[in-house]
User: Fold this.
Amino acid sequence: MSEIVNMPMAKALNAGLRAALAADEKVLLMGEDIGPLGGVFRITEGLQAEFGPRRVQDTPLAESGIVGTAIGLAMRGYRPVCEIQFDGFIYPAFDQIVSQLAKQTNRHGGTLSMPVVIRVPYGGHIGAVEHHQESPEAYFAHTAGLRVVSPSTPNDAYWMIQEAIQSNDPVLFFEPKSRYWPKGEVNLTESQLGLHQSRVAREGTDVTLIGHGAMVSTLLQAAEVAAGEGISAEVVDLRSISPIDYGPLLDSARKTGRVVVAQEAPENASVGSEIAATLAEKAFYSLEAPVLRVSGFDTPFPAAKLEGLYLPDADRVLDAVDRALAY
Amino acid sequence: MTLHTEQAPEPVRFLSADGTFAPTPAAEPFLARLDSLTDAHHERFYRDMVSVRAFDREATNLQRQGEMALFPPSEGQEGAQVGSAHAARPQDHIFPSYREHVVGMIRGVDPVNILSLMRGVTLGGWDPTDPKNGNFHLYTLVLGSQTLHATGYAMGQLFDGASGTGNVETDEATIVYFGDGSTSEGDVSEALVFAASHQTPQVFFLQNNQWAISVPVSVQSRTPLYLRGAGFGLPSVQIDGNDVLASYAVTSQFLDEARVGQGPRFIEAMTYRMGAHTTSDDPTKYRTNEERAEWGQRDPIVRFEAYLRARGASESLFTSAAEDAKDLCADVRARTLALEAPDFPTMFEHVYSEEHPRMREQSDWLTRYEASMTEDNR
Ligand SMILES: Cc1ncc(C[n+]2csc(CCOP(=O)(O)OP(=O)(O)O)c2C)c(N)n1
Ligand SMILES: [Mg+2]
Assistant:
């Protein structure tokens, strides 16, 4: 019998981290304000009290320092899990991530592994000031040597964080912060999918909607509205951004012939662009319409009062669905 | 070899916590700076501190009432900020972090512009190229980044010959504000390297308010932080940041030394963030009431008020300062509530210096889309 518990993603992540800390004493959490405060989103709440200040560390305030020392700790056999406080504050660590972390295993000819996880609360919908609502996943998906994932449900968060920590490669773990608090069912007994598998979140036959992170709930909302209009939309949750598990995407595209890819991130050179190109290459003869993208605009993430216009919502997705169906 | 693991000797301080004038030995070299201060200056210092404390509370309330995304209060740090802001000369450039509201106000920035950033209607708020804003540059939320910008700006002042002529009335200098937590960011160390290398006309003004959100300064440094500046070769001092006179005297002397060509300087102002880090923060999770109460005993406004009273300031100063602060708050509240979301096309403006095809395309698309949505809803 599986134990099923209803909890928000924030608690599921906390539980997943706790399980990982308990399972392997080499697992360390490091980040800004993750100790007594429990992180600004309270994801690590109580963990320092439980595992001590060495296993759950408030680091000096330096992102490059956090990731750079995590690399050294990994060389020494630790499995660091770094928290970057907000999406927009990952860039001071960019060099350490893309030039160092991503490349160590390759440069060592496979003799050294880099089991480092970097947790990043990301995305909009929280009405915050600049640098607090960005979606920078494409930069990392663009870099060889990094695995990039993003859960959309509490259940996925619970399992994927543990699987990411078990990975011997660096994993960028993007947490959709607007989804931290809605509750969902978590199966505490067994994981249904691997870290890098995509998942059909809703079945349908007329059009395929693809997204990751917080966008998945927007897509499900759009699918619900579409159903009311007699349109059957299938929703695929990517879960993994690098590598992308194209099997379910291609199956769905071949079934419906129409695809909309949605993301909060700006469109230019984005994950959505990559998916559109790949589906066009691999499912060309099954497509009835070009793969359409719905994205954030190619501007800086705007002031909070404009975020509702910047971020794709169900209406923008449905607008693309209409356009896809019009072909 | 000396290991500087303990607290520094007595910092530069003129006013003891009870307001008596009792300069510490470290303050002696800066004493002469107080000579030029008149009663009018003192009044202004006092009024500014009182105003910003009221502003701070008003802004916090506005945030609590859902009228702002966020607000970082500066309560407790008024002495450090008001003293240093008045030390800058009109030609100086100021690079703040995000908590120096009163510095901006002293330089001429409308406080409502500061709140417009926090209300989420703009990503900037004021125009530092407009002389009315007193060369007060935009807030920078990515910690430490602005220290490098300030250093680069000061390099420009140097390369232009706008500083170093020996005339304090016209030579330019730059001052940059940052926090104790931010000193750990690589950018801050790099800024100190460049400043020392170029001998920029610049003052690094570190407000050590003891906390970086929930992390105490002991996690950032085991030595007093003013030694960080010294380690890079900058003349560096620690001051009592809750003594507005110490902040004024040391900053004005350091800025003048820097502007006439003696190179960059470093100030560590010891102070305390009395409020939450921002309105999203809950300090009860990580610090004690005793600690806060202890710093409350060293309040910069109470201290300066006691000093002014002992000097015979008239009661009307204190009552009118309080009234003016109230008026300021009423005005700020009314105008903040009137700040509307900008029209969306502004999102696509000024992303590039020239017309850009992608901005045009997406702006046009959104215009059409929005129009079609309103039609649908009819
Ligand atoms: C590069 C970067 N990392 C993290 C943050 C999140 N953050 C905002 S303020 C803050 C603490 C800053 O402390 P300090 O420098 O002492 O300044 P104070 O807030 O105390 O004035 C943190 C961690 C940030 N803004 N930028
Ligand atoms: Mg601080």
Observations:
- Residues 236 and 249 of chain A are 7 Å apart (CA to CA).
- The mean pLDDT of chain A is 98.
- The longest helix of chain A spans residues 9-23.
- Residues 199-326 of chain A form a domain with the Rossmann fold fold (CATH 3.40.50.920).
